[in-house]
Structure formats: structure tokens, C-alpha cells
Amino acid sequence: MENKKYLFVQADSSQAEARVVWLLADDEDALRLVDEIDYHAWTASWFFGGTEQDYSKKILGYEHPIRFAGKTLRHAGHLGAGKRRASIELNTQARKYKIPITITEFIAERALRIFHSKQPKIQHVFQASIIECLKKNRQLIAPVPYGVNAKYGGKRTFYERWGDELFRQGFSYIPQRTITDNTKAAALRIWKRIPTIKIVMESHDALLFTIPEINSNEWIPIIKEEMERPIRFSNCSIPRRDLIIPCEIEIGYNYKDLSKFKDIPIISQPRIEPKMIPRSVTESFTVVELGKDSKLDDIIYNNMEKRNEI
């Protein structure tokens, strides 16, 4: 292999927002299991049958469409989405990332019922606590990242009309604010310890660097250490213990060809089209062939994206 001078290094917080939701929901079992199993694949098996191993990214080496559906529907359940919003979100994201799957509102509704029956603390503890905070003063306070000299984290006052849309914004505020603040604070700490490091990009739960190859063994442990500092929830709107979010490191000479640190390869796409397992009687998802986008497709997609941002 030709020797290169610089490497791309990406530090990515693992299952970041989900971990915050589980902590706020006081679900220690989920926080333990997420490091032991492929949680998205396990969730997908609740909705579509099969087992975790059938959809596991670690076993298959690529993102199975059903795992993608399980991940997206779980996220929708965390944020209090209804059947229509959940189905639109899944179908929109699948189209965006060229994942060959689409679902109906009926399937989304059934999946959300199963999800909340399997993990009732999401609704009964996390979401209920958020609503109580909004009832009190319409304010939510986020936790404090490590190294920030402040008693309280970011604070937001919600002025939206009382109802489901207000609740959904409330459900997403603390998890999203926690992760973006943690990533930015980690970037500042890393830069302070390594003043010559080049931060290429910050993307919510991840940081991308370029570093001299000769410094990789020295600098990468520092990056990982700072990304995994404890986040303080003691003065959050829903007080909890400190949370450490594991960080996954990927490196490569090209950004599109990153691999796990210590040269563990990652297969982003299957070489052979995966064979789908037979559908059960209760399964109703549809796998579709993705055709070439037309101008009308782009207009519809862009309008849906704008509505989701509002």
C-alpha cells in the first residue's frame, strides 16, 4: 500500500440519542443491552418476525432493509410520532438513502403499538415526564457537557400551541441538544489538547478530522477519550445519573472508504443482493424496486423534507 501523509479520522457517538432517551426513561436494561446486541435488528424482529441474527449488521455486513425499518420506527416511537408521521418518515428516509423498502400507515401503527408494549417506560416515564415539565412552565433544560463551567445546560421555552406537535418538539429537545452540545464540547477539548489537529466537519453526533498518519496512534486515543467524557444530568429537567456515550473510531485515506480503527473492514454495500426471509402472516411490508428519479419525484421529496423541518 502506498504510504500517505494524512488520514481521515471519524469519531462517532454510538446510538447517542437513543441512549439519552433510555436514561431519561430510567431504562437501565436497554442501556445495558445496547452494547451487547444489535438493538435495531432486535427491534425489527418485533415488528417483522425473524430474529436479531436475521437482520444484524455485524453478521450480514450491510444494512438490511428490515433493520433500517426497525431503526427508523424505533426513533419515531421515541419521539411520539403517530402512524402517519412514522410511515412518511420511514418511506422518505428509505428513498433518500436508496433503501428498497416502503410501509403503509397500518404497518406503522401496528409497529408503534408493539414498540410501546415492549418498552412502556418510553411513554410512561420519559414522555410523561417531558409533558409534566411543559405543563409546569413550558421550559426544558438540557444536561451539561463535560468541562463546561455551568450549573445548567441549554434552556428552551416552548411557545407552540398545546398538543401533539408541542409534545413531539419537547420529546426531541433534550436528546438532540444533549448530543450536539456534547460533540461540540468534545471538539473544543480535543483542539485544546492537540492545537494542530484539523477538524474538517461536525455533524451532530460525529467529528471528522484529518491527522498526520505518523500521529495516529497518539492522537486517536485522545479523540476517543474526549468523546467519551461523562455528561452531567443532575440539573436537567429530568434529573438522572451521568451518562457516558461510547465512541466508535473509523479511519481511512478516503472519506468514502473508512474502516474501523486498527484496520477492521466495514462493508457498506452487499456484493450480492440479499435474499429476503419469507414473510410471516402478520407481515405486510413491501419491498420495492427503486426506479430512476423524475423531476416530479424530486419536487415531492423536497416538499416532504421541508414539511418535516417545520
Shape: globular
Biggest sheet: strand arrangement: 4-5-1-6-7
Measured as a percent range, the helix fraction is 40-55%
Strand content range = 5-15%
Low-confidence stretches: 263-293
Number of strands: 7
What integer value in Å does the Rg equal?
21 Å
Q: Please trace the helix and strand order, writing H or E for each element.
A: EHHHHHHHHHEEHEEHEEH
How far do the termini sit from each other?
A: 48 Å
Assembly status: single chain
**What's the mean pLDDT score?**
86
Count of runs of 4 or more consecutive helical residues: 12
Q: Helices and strands: which structural class? A: alpha+beta
Reported for the largest beta sheet, the result is: 5 strands, antiparallel
Quick structural overview:
The protein is built from twelve helices and seven strands.
Task: Provide an overview of this structure.
There is one protein chain. With about 300 residues, this protein is of the alpha+beta class. The chain has helices at about 15-25, 30-35, 40-50, 50-55, 55-60, 65-80, 85-95, 105-120, 120-135, 165-195, 215-225, 295-310; strands spanning about 5-15, 140, 155, 200, 205-210, 245-250, 260. It has a domain at about 30-120 and about 280-310. It is built from twelve helices and seven strands. Strand 6 (about 245-250) and strand 7 form a beta hairpin. Helix 1 crosses helix 10, helix 3 (about 40-50) crosses helix 6 and helix 7 crosses helix 8. The protein is globular. The N and C termini lie far apart (about 50 Å). Residues about 265-295 have low confidence and may be disordered.
